[in-house]
Amino acid sequence: MEYEATYEYDAECEVLIRCDPHAKIISKDEPVWRNLGPKDDSYARAIYLGQGCWNKLDTISEEKALDILSQWGYVSKDKEI
After folding, report:
1. Eight-state DSSP code of residue 1
2. Rounded to whole angstroms, what are the CA distances from 49 to 1, 23, 38, 42?
3. What is the pTM for the complete model shown?
4. What SS3 state is found at 46?
5. Which pLDDT does position 44 carry in this prediction?
6. Is residue 10 a contact partner of residue 53, using CB atoms and an 8 Å limit?
7. Side-by-side strand order, sheet with 34-35
8. Residue 74: pLDDT above 70?
């Protein structure tokens, strides 16, 4: 079963989260997609439980996510955004 990705953006911290259905995170300072980990606890709680920093996240389109990644100078090595 194929899932359509959704994107959450934290403009203040310049963090983008892709859920498809597992959440991956990328930031302007660390432009590599990775799984949510212990240092991302607030984002993990927001995505999976609706708690944490949910109020800081804005749901955005894939087009907007691509635009943000382009502004950050992100170049995908495996056609994954």
Report:
1. -
2. 23, 13, 15, 10
3. 0.86
4. helix
5. 92
6. yes
7. 34-35, 23-27, 15-19, 6-10, 58-60
8. yes
